[in-house]
Hints:
By secondary structure, the protein is of the alpha/beta class.
Amino acid sequence: MPWEELVAEPGELAFERVPFEHPLWILYSSGTTGLPKPIVQGHGGILLEHLKCLALHHDLGPRDRFSWFTTTGWMMWNFLVSGLAVGATIVLYDGSPGHPDLTALWRLAAEVGITYFGTSAPFLHACMKRGLRPGEVVDLRGVRGIGSTGAPLSPEGFAWVYEAVHPDVWLGSMSGGTDLCTAFVGANPLLPVHAGELQCRCLGAAVEAFDPGGRPLVEEVGELVITEPMPSMPVGFWNDPGGERYRRCYFEHYPGVWRHGDWIKITSRGSCVIYGRSDATLNRAGVRIGTSELYRVVEALPGVRESLAVDTGELGREGELILFVATEEGVELDDALRQRIADALRTELSPRHVPDRILAVPAIPTTLNGKRLEVPVKRILLGARPEEVVSPDALADPTALRPFLEIAERLRATAGST
Length: 418
C-alpha cells in the first residue's frame, strides 16, 4: 500500500534531536517466566543494533523485500520495521499463518517476491510435521534467506528447509530477546550452516556459556551470559525508578554480568546451540536437561500435536518430571501412546528423559508469540496463584491454562493424602 493511502492525514515529517538514550518505546517481555517486564529501550542503542543485525548479519539492503511473520506484540515486529533503515522493502502480513492452510506465507513469498523470509521455529516444525513441500507448490527460488527464531530449530527442521523449500537457501537461526530487542547469537552470510546450530555470536555481543562458578565453557552447556554492555540493553524498566527489579532480573546471579536465562553451548568452531530456558531445565539424577531436545522427540511422533515438560523439583530437591501432551484431533492419549512416547525418549535420548507422568491436556498454553509457559506452569504446580505468575493478556489462549489449574489442585490433594 502506498504511503499516501496508508496515512489518513498526510503531513510534513518533523524531526527532533534527542539524547542517545532517550526512551524510544516500552516493550513487554513475552511472559514465559512470569509477569511480563515493561522494558524501556533507547533511540541510539536500538538503531545501532538493528542496523548492525539487518545490514551485516542478515545482509539486507535496498534490493531486498524483507518479511518476518510476527504479531505487533513481539519484538520481531519492531525488528522488521527497522528494515526500512537499511533501505529494504518490508512486507507485513495480517492474518493467521495457517489460513487457509500452512502454505499461505509461502504463497505470499512467491507472489510478492520476498527475498528474506523470517518466521519462527514452531512454524517451520509445523510445516515439516504436516509433510509440506512448499518449494514444489510455488516458486521460492527468489527467497535467498530464511530466518528462524522464537525457539530452537531442530536439526530435522534444518534438513526439512533444505529438502522441502530450496537446497540453495541460506537458513539463519537466531536467538536474542525482547530485553535487548535484538539477537546476540545468529546468522552470518560468510560462514557455513550446520544443522541445529546458530552460525556465530553476533558482532559486539560478548556472549559466553558460564558454569555455576562463572567460568566460561566451550563444547559444554552453560548459562548464556553477556559479559560486556551492548548498545540496546534497556535504559531501565518502566515504574522501576531505582532499578532494583532490573538488576534483580539480569545481574543477581553473576554480579556485573548479564544472565539471560537460556542454556547455550558454544562449539569449538564458534557456532552456538540453544537448549531452551535454563530456569525451565529438567534436573534428572543430577543431570540438567534442556527441554528443547525432549520436545523434538515427542512432537515428531504421529498423533502428538504439542507438549510441555515440567520438573517439579526445587531448591536442590528432585521432583517429578511431568509431560503434558496435546494430541491431534481424533487421537487419544492412551497407554499405547504413552508407551510410544516413553520408548522414543529412552531410545533417542536417555532413560533420564522418560517422564514420571504423561498427562493429557486439550492445548499447551503459550504466549502471544507462541512460547510455551514452562516456568509459570511449574510455579502453579508448586502452589503459586496464577495471577502471581502469568498475565492473561500475554496468552494466546487464556483458557488453555485452566486444565493446568485443575491438575495442580489434584496433584496437591494427592500429595496431601500420602
